[in-house]
Amino acid sequence: MSSRDKKLIVAGGLTGAAVIAWRTLFPWLQDDIKLIRAVIPGGRETLSDFENGRYIIDKFEEKANTQPNQTFIIFEDKVYTYGFVNSMANRVANVAATWNLKLGDTCLQKLGLVASFINYHLRDEPLSHSITASDGKALIVGQDDEFLEAVEEIRHTIEDIPTFVLGKQQSELPTGYKSMDSLMEQALPVDLCKPVRNGMNLLSTMCYIFTSGTTGLPKPAIVSQSKAIAAGKFMRTIDLNKNDVVYTTLPLYHSAATLIGLFGVIDAGAIMVLRRKFSTHHFFEDCRKHGVTVIQYIGEMCRYLLRLPPDPLDGTHKIRAAFGNGLRPDIWKEFQTRFKIPHIGEFFAATEGIGSLLNIFDKPGVIGRLSPVLRRILRSAIPIEIVRYDPINDKPIRDKNGRCVKSKRGEEGLIIGLIPPTKKDFYRGTKEMNEKKIIRNAFIEGDAYFSFGDLVYIDNQYYVYFRDRVGDTFRWKGENVSTMEVAHTLTEIDFIQDANVYGVKIPGSDGRAGMAAILLKDHKEVTSEMLKTIYERCKHSLPSYARPLFLRFMKEFTVTQTMKHKKVELREEGFDPQKVTDPLYYLDELQNSYIPLNLNTYQRVLESKL
């Protein structure tokens, strides 16, 4: 054997030993490499789209031209091709072209206009506020009598906004409304000239998606064209392609359903199966019927599916991946094993946030990774830090120099994202609304970070885990619930002096359920009529997920020095009658009221589905 061969053998042995040593000492490096390989192709495509000004609407029109007969949407067993949807969108756009709207007005994307996604559960002031806050220039009401009734109730507050109704002829509509069907019948299904979108750029607003926050009423989060393009690449990390069929039961006013689901499907030229409302009993039946290969989820949805009785067909489907967020570690493996889901991809992001995290490692409970390697290689994609947080004062802890303190591994902290100079606002509205989400001079003078409002921690191998929401907003049934919005609804009732709303944990459920501590006027005693009134007001004015499940009637409130309600002790006491001496009640849909909660009924409440 030559000396050269010996040297090669020694070198090969050393290299192999080095690789084994690295894998032994730093096993998490393999996941770093896996993540980098998963995100770089989509990242390159995103940069290419940015450079070429290839927006979501352009991608959709391209697919309509290159694969017009390819199925795009399946809804209620009806199949809509890319070509058909494009022709219908053209009809709408040609109608809207006669409304004298200008680029950037809130209405429609085909014309370079901004779309505003209104939560169809909203009623009364939240609905009126959402329409006016987005500066809507036209309102299109969906094909449902319930939607028209909701708009009719607040019509006096939006009289200046022309309103068009789907599913009705002009003769069937009240005065002041126009039939969208009649107008579309007269419009041509032809493409508009692209120059109508001239002036649109990456920083242009594409749409508003409403989020609930501590300011009370829904806030229109600004989604730019660049963010829409980037969000459409999320599912490329699970290799989404044109042969995939994506099943989404989340409402399309959700950023997960639209930005990640719908835009991801358009980007890949795939198929999307929609359902009007999530159904546990029909979920996998739909997946089998339509050959679904990818499902979108939120954690609570998975918990509902696990409550189904075991079925021999549980694992009979073509699903290769589930993609979503909020799947808690206590049910992760059970869900994946029982329903035979080969791969689960978890992401962490916010509609208006800066940066995101991904768990493509099938590691239960993890929302992403923040290792030194990833921070260096993917810095622009993961501009995220985790800082120590003071829950009492609801703000980051700062050192003697006034700078934020980065959390150590294993230490809970607030997750924040570096705001680029090009980012002006997160919400359409006042400066104060935007400023509340910004942490200034965090690490150096002049920097600015977006606060996600979430507490997380990093373990010793740099995996990131979600802990809880901060402040007043909490999550229930996959929705952010604004405590101020609920409190405002309650205090409009004439016998209620004040209301303190917060979220409480229920064993076996994700998020926090709504609970309201109530102070009655003139020290009145609770009556069955009062409870009935509270139930009816909440049902009429609040979406189902925001209605308090528990009521606590107090004789007096404790407040902070700045006159804010104290919530920490109330959250800890929850609705346990062994800890709470005040009268407690729980929501009973069968009796259409709130029912006394005591030691006898407490266990039954815990075991119920609420």
UniProtKB/TrEMBL annotation:
It catalyses: a very long-chain fatty acid + ATP + CoA = a very long-chain fatty acyl-CoA + AMP + diphosphate; tetracosanoate + ATP + CoA = tetracosanoyl-CoA + AMP + diphosphate. PROSITE patterns: AMP_BINDING (PS00455). Belongs to the ATP-dependent AMP-binding enzyme family. This is Long-chain-fatty-acid--CoA ligase. Residues 485-564 form the AMP-binding enzyme C-terminal domain. The keyword ATP-binding does not apply. Keywords: Ligase, Membrane, Transmembrane, Transmembrane helix. Signal peptide: none annotated. The keyword Membrane applies. The chain crosses the membrane at residues 252-274. It comes from the Eukaryota. Residues 60-359 form the AMP-dependent synthetase/ligase domain.
